[in-house]
Amino acid sequence: MSLPAPDHDALAASHSLQQLIADEIEGQGGAIPFSRFMELALYAPRLGYYSGGASKLGAEGDFTTAPEISPLFGAALARVAAAIIAQSAPDIIEFGAGTGKLARDVLAALAAQGVAVNSYTIIELSGELRARQQEALKDLPQVRWLDAMPERFSGVVLANEVLDAMPVELVLNTAAGWRRQMVTIENGAFAFVQQPLGAELEAQLARQVPEHDARPEGYLTELHPVSAGFMRSLAAMFEGGKGAAILLDYGFPAHEYYLDQRMGGTLMCHYRHHSHPDPFYLPGLQDITAHVDFTAMALASQEAGLPVLAYMNQASFLLGAGIGELLMEHDPEDALRFLPQAKAVQKLVSPAEMGELFKVLVVGRDVDLPDAIAAADRSHRL
């Protein structure tokens, strides 16, 4: 791979994390599950990708998210949030708030609609991003930070590109049957080794991967126990309350996720706006993600008692939320202001850009979604 070289301090931090992971591998008898490797690579205190100090977003970071592309993304979300707040409570929780831009855009748009928000709670695992958020949002008194979700909640939950960053299990179909990908050390470098799945992962494989026994030998894919657990936690949080969670991410329903031609799974790494498939490259300095199995997320929520309210691609959601109308609030004759926003909206809704790959799952209780969003629902495709 030809990727930008890290500076001395970044490389030293990565080496420290590699040693921490190597020590755990040794302490666990020579191998750890890939899910644990991914957890340490992303979230190890002070050294993991999200818990360290390197920039994540924007030109100096590794990737760009929808809120960074246009404030109209947050304004469109705010329209749906306003409808949910009117039926529940004037409180919002955002998981993984990035630079804080989505929070600012949503709050500004709600204020413009005359919707007062009592509290906007951010749950953020990245120390670097939390510091950026606190600086960016210091003039908004309703914003606060927590380390974990509250026990009970009513209102709106926002999670943009959160599920894809949760650790996954890698499983491989071999001549001897399905095996769990473990991480070991060979010749001084991280490497994969296989172990039997065990009863718990065998049950999850059977539940999550359609016709898993018919997959070809050499087929590699992901299981999502952590993100499914997150959906169950959302259900518990909404127990006794009312409201909805809006989860936006890239991914597929199960019948599109586990295709025979997707032999290598969906795991992908992001480093300085370069994408590549090697999770062992410079741990702590790159993002590691997997596409979301939205069928598994919907089932986890539903089985835990939190119904699915809607599922659709991002284009349908944003158009149903009125992003086109929001764009036309800018004067088309003012090309200097209008054209950049029009280009940004095109990127957000075009099937060739983010409009189709990104999906929106809405789960909730005792609230109705706006008619245009409800009409676009495709949850039957899950």
Annotation field: number of helices: 14
Let me know the largest β-sheet: 8 strands, mixed
Order of helices and strands: HEHHHEHEHEEEEEHEHEHEEEEHEHHHEH
Structural class: alpha/beta
* Low-confidence runs: none
Q: Beta-strand level of the residues, as a percent range?
A: 15-25%
Q: Kindly provide the radius of gyration, computed on alpha-carbon positions and rounded to a whole number of angstroms.
A: 21 Å
Q: Roughly how much helix do the residues carry, as a percent range? A: 25-40%
Distance between the termini: 36 Å
The tally of beta strands, per DSSP, is 16
Shape: globular
- Mean pLDDT, to the nearest integer, reads 94
Description:
The chain has 382 residues and is α/β, with parallel strands linked by helices. Helix content is 37%, strand content 23%. It has 14 helices and 16 strands. The chain has helices spanning 8-27, 34-43, 66-69, 71-85, 101-112, 127-136, 199-208, 225-238, 254-257, 294-303, 314-320, 323-327, 335-349, 371-375; strands spanning 32-33, 91-95, 119-123, 143-146, 155-160, 169-174, 177-186, 189-196, 220-223, 243-252, 268-271, 274-276, 287-289, 292-293, 308-313, 358-365. Strands 2, 3, 4, 5, 10, 14, 15 and 16 form an eight-stranded mixed β-sheet that branches. Strands 1, 6, 7, 8 and 9 form a five-stranded antiparallel β-sheet that branches. The chain has a three-stranded antiparallel β-sheet with strand order 12-11-13. The longest helix is centred in the first third of the chain and has 20 residues, at 8-27.
